[in-house]
Write a structure and sequence with these properties.
Blueprint (H helix, E strand, L loop, with lengths): L7 E6 L3 H17 L3 E7 L5 H9 L5 E6 L14 H12 L3 H6 L6 E6 L7 H6 L4 E5 L3 H16 L34 H11 L6 E4 L7 H8 L3 E2 L2 E2 L3 E3 L15 H9 L6 E5 L8 H14 L2 E6 L28 H4 L4 E5 L4 H5 L4 E6 L3 H9 L4 E3 L6 H12 L2 E3 L14 H13 L1 H21 L4 H15 L2
Parallel strand pairs: 1-2, 1-4, 2-3, 4-5, 5-6, 6-9, 10-11, 10-13, 11-12, 13-14, 14-15
Antiparallel strand pairs: 7-8
Helix pairs in contact: 1-2, 3-7, 6-8, 10-15, 15-16
The structure holds uridine-5'-diphosphate.
Uridine-5'-diphosphate (UDP) binds next to helix 1, helix 12 and helix 13.
Enzyme class: transferase
Family: Belongs to the UDP-glycosyltransferase family.
EC number: 2.4.1.-
Length: 478
């Protein structure tokens, strides 16, 4: 009686919780719902405490963690590099031994390798081994379609995109305001642009592309690509919307988790504003002070995740979940005492999904990273969008204008540069969302999307059935 081995798929994610989480959640679904075995390759260079705790919290006998050897980065990265350029170099160096690692994995021959957008360097090794590569685009469908269009734009547009006189019109999609263009394309001369273009230009080499979205959330962008074999004359692999896949298990990262949840237990329903700006987000000292004053003046309950201020919006990216100093040092004098009981200041990291899932949480002031966005919607929590870096300005606009679940903070000036939002404005917007009519409207829309997100992931739902279709094709492949 021979036991047939379970079908085997490998995953590779670039560093950063925002990339690892959705790929990991897909891997967990494959082992728990579809009876697969998964080898999850982890890039250890640049790994953060938050990422390590998340991976450790999700152990499963059929999910094998394979740590890639630490890469020698001496002379290759420096502190003045942008986060994406640094991340891309780390991936490039870490996957040098990929071919021998993939061929040495325990288990039957791989049905597929699933990567995120910054891991397209795997193609050569996978081609040599005849393993199909699937990409999981972990940001919005809107950014996905823009990214498919970018190589065409790169050929057709002279000069900088930020100097274009009109919004960018990706065929079939909502126009993208110039000031909302993602950081990676705002200066075509920098390495970050070259890396982004390199990876998105290789998207068509994949066998299929998963997107962490579903029709009710992004109908227009998904329609533009879902059934297209060519997008802008470029052959496009099948696109599979399988979202919202979000973190299910909240790891213990700082040890303050229980305290935070116990505080929330004592607050009234929907009364608390959760303020957290992503895994890497940092405000300038001036802006953090204004935000603290705005929260205090609003007289609303809040949980405020505070980090050491920085002039770079992404200063914490490679340190996510690290211990921070006493947050009081970075807040207005007396703030913590004056807001005691109404607000809770948390140093550097909070158990975000657990907080969003708590009935006392009424709104989320978020940088609108895509995972944070999906986590908020999955728990029916409306948002105040405070975009910080990457494509978050686009996300904040989509969420406020198209989806109707957020109010956007005016953090961008007419010239596209970041501006300081003053305390009175913050106070006004926080009150409007926590107590006003606007808040009621976006909360009820968030609840609709919560239900729709649940339905699409259930048997018979579109995201569930889409993933099942791919899984079945993997099972049948030789
Ligand atoms: N996160 C968290 N606690 C924090 C800040 C962030 O658990 O205090 C998690 C959050 O739940 C999400 C991820 O970090 O899963 C952030 O991903 P996202 O795509 O929103 O933003 P990025 O970090 O990529 O900018």
């Amino acid at each position: 009686n021979e036991i047939t081995p379970k079908p085997h798929v490998a995953f590779l994610a670039s560093p950063g919780l925002g990339h690892i989480t959705p790929l990991f959640e897909l891997a967990i679904r494959l082992v728990t719902q579809h009876n697969f075995q998964v080898s999850f390759l982890v890039i250890t260079t640049g790994a953060t405490p938050a990422q390590n705790e998340y991976v450790n919290a999700n152990k499963h006998p059929d999910l094998h963690i394979v740590d890639l050897p630490t890469a020698d980065m001496s002379g290759l990265v420096s502190d003045d590099m942008t986060a994406v350029a640094r991340l891309c170099v780390i991936v490039q160096e870490s996957i040098r031994p990929l071919k021998s690692i993939l061929s040495g994995l325990e288990g039957p021959k791989l049905k597929a390798v699933v990567i995120d957008i910054f891991c397209t360097g795997v193609f050569e090794a996978c081609n040599d081994l005849s393993i199909p590569v699937y990409s999981f685009f972990t940001a919005s469908a809107a950014l996905f379609v823009f990214s498919l269009y970018l190589p065409t734009m790169d050929k057709e547009v002279e000069g900088e995109f930020v100097d274009l006189p009109e919004p960018v019109q990706v065929p079939g999609c909502h126009p993208i305001q110039i000031q909302d263009l993602l950081d990676q394309v705002r200066d075509r001369k920098i390495d970050e642009y070259k890396w982004y273009l390199f990876h998105v230009s290789r998207l068509h080499m994949t066998t299929g592309i998963f997107v962490n979205a579903w029709d009710d959330l992004e109908p227009v962008s998904l329609k533009a690509v879902k059934h297209e074999q060519f997008f802008m004359q470029i052959p496009t692999p099948p696109v599979y919307p399988i979202g919202p896949l979000t973190k299910q298990i909240e790891p213990v990262v700082t040890g303050h988790e229980e305290e935070i949840m116990a505080w929330l237990d004592k607050q009234p329903k929907d009364s608390v504003l959760f303020v957290a700006l992503g895994s890497g987000g940092t405000l300038t000292s001036e802006q953090q002070t204004e935000l603290a004053w705005g929260l205090e003046l609003s007289h609303q309950r809040f949980i405020f995740v505070v980090r050491k201020p920085s002039d770079s919006a992404l200063a914490a990216f490679f340190h996510a979940g690290s211990d921070s100093d006493d947050p009081k040092a970075y807040l207005p004098e007396g703030f913590v005492d004056r807001t005691n009981g109404v607000g809770l200041v948390v140093s550097s990291w909070a158990p975000q999904v657990a907080v969003l899932n708590h009935p006392s949480t009424g709104a989320f002031m978020s940088h609108c990273g895509w995972n944070s966005t999906l986590e908020s919607l999955k728990h029916g929590v409306p948002m105040i969008g405070w975009p910080m870096y990457a494509e978050q300005r686009m996300n904040a606009t989509i969420l406020s204008k198209e989806v109707g679940v957020a109010v956007k903070m005016p953090v961008v000036g007419d010239d596209g540069e970041t501006v300081i939002v003053r305390r009175e404005e913050i106070e006004r917007i926080v009150r409007a969302v926590m107590e006003g009519e606007e808040g009621k409207k976006i909360r009820s829309r968030a609840k609709e999307l919560e239900a729709s997100g649940q339905a699409t992931l259930s048997h018979g739902g579109s995201s569930y059935e889409t993933l099942t279709q791919v899984v079945e094709s993997w099972k049948l492949s030789s």
